[in-house]
Amino acid sequence: MSSAADTTATIIPCLRYRDAFAAIDWLCRAFGFEKQAVYADGDTVHHAQLTFGNGMIMLGSADNASDWGRQIAQPEEIGKRETQSPCVIVRDTDAHYARAKAAGAQIVMDISDQDYGGRGYSCRDLEGHLWWFGSYDPWKAHD
Question: Would you place residue 126 in the very low, low, confident or very high pLDDT band (cuts 50, 70, 90)?
Answer without folding.
Answer: very high
